[in-house]
């Protein structure tokens, strides 16, 4: 009789244990399902900014059969180019003489046919300044150099590319733009939650997109680097928990 009572008691304990275990497992499933109730949204932040640095290279050439005369002509062109920049209000200290290339056509190993001009000398001058408006104004008057007899060269894109405008203060904008992108993402999640009868909870996961510097105006054949006004954009992807 005693053994039967013990057996019944043990069975009862096991049954209670199974029931309790089942309840815990059930709660685990509910929590897991709640944990998977998320919504993934993208938050956008944009700023229109103005470039704060301009870099412009000009390449010009002189040619002839007398090297001394060619170099004299090139020095005159250099003076004209330097005056062009200083007349535009750019300090002489911002003007830098870069590469000087001298080509002797007679020394070319693989030339064919007679040489009409023996020497070709090319000089590259660059200006680097934060006075971007003055560079932009000067770039509109580059034709005056041609009128003054300066032979501009498109070789290596020195002249043809025009000035490049750079925005250097991106790090100053990042904290504010990340916060705005996050807020915009939460607004989108809140709308989704309202439609589904839920409310937005904590952030489950967040992925910050790359900051992009884009042209403010989409103009064919005019890249971002050629435009003073630019658009900075970041898109963040954020997963929010949804709660009842």
Automatic annotation (TrEMBL):
Note the Pfam families from the entry: SIMPL
Name listed for the protein in its UniProt record = SIMPL domain-containing protein
In which organism is this protein found? Tistrella arctica
């Amino acid at each position: 009789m005693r053994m039967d009572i013990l057996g019944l008691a043990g069975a009862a304990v096991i049954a209670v244990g199974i029931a309790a275990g089942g309840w815990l497992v059930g709660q685990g499933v509910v929590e897991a399902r709640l944990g998977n109730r998320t919504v993934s949204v993208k938050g956008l932040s944009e700023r229109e900014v103005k470039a704060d640095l301009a870099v412009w290279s000009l390449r010009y050439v002189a040619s002839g059969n007398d090297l001394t005369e060619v170099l004299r002509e090139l020095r005159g062109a250099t003076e004209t180019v330097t005056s062009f920049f200083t007349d535009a209000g750019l300090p002489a200290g911002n003007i830098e003489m870069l590469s000087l290339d001298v080509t002797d056509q007679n020394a070319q190993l693989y030339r064919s046919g007679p040489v009409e001009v023996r020497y070709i000398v090319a000089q590259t001058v660059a200006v680097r300044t934060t006075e971007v408006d003055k560079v932009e104004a000067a770039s509109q008057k580059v034709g005056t150099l041609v009128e003054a007899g300066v032979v501009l060269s498109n070789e290596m894109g020195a002249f043809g590319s025009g000035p490049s405008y750079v925005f250097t203060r991106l790090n100053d904008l990042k904290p504010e733009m990340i916060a705005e992108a996050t807020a915009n993402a939460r607004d989108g999640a809140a709308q989704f939650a309202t439609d589904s009868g839920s409310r937005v909870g904590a952030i489950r996961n967040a992925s910050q997109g790359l900051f992009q510097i884009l042209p403010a105006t989409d103009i064919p054949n005019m890249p971002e680097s050629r435009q003073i006004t630019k658009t900075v954009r970041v898109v963040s992807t954020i997963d929010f928990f949804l709660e009842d």
